[in-house]
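Batch manifest line 168
LIGAND: 4'-phosphopantetheine
JOB: complex structure
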Amino acid sequence: MSRKPHVTAIYPGSFDPITNGHLDLIQRGSRTFDHLIVSILRNDAKQPLFSVEERVEMLREVVHVYPNVEVDSFDGLLVDYASARQATVLLRGIRAISDYEYELQMALMNRRLRPEIETVFMMAHEAYSFISSRLVKQVFSLGGNIAGLVPPSVEERLNTRLTKQKTA
Ligand code: PNS
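JOB STATUS: finished
ARTIFACT:
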């Protein structure tokens, strides 16, 4: 009798900060795969607003409700990290056609590096297809309302960070 394989997937990204779009993908990924590792890229060339440690904390605060979801961080090549974690799938979200080119390039490069690892794309929920961490940060810093775009705990952290920046 053949046994169903246990599939571990990595959901990699910057998550600076996590948005409700990311959270929707995590929820759906947790239903699709046996084990989902949400992993934050270290050594990001982009100047992040939150440190990797803060982002790990923020992610853990919101994903603890999914028992098969783990939060981690990585550096170096994503496919090497995936292989070390015995993951066979890379999960990525696509919001709009504009995401496609970048995602295709990454998926093809990753396949060339390690063909045994498959990239799986999920279409973003239509309610979140316009959200990005970059836009959330911009709108928030200019006083716009971001309620419903990020988890409440992230909104609180953004508030604290902005107040600190203003008083610094
Ligand atoms: O949320 P992001 O910023 O779009 O995530 C990009 C990420 C982390 C998936 C990508 O930059 C990445 O995988 N970096 C690790 C380095 C690597 O493996 N590069 C070759 C893949 S094309």
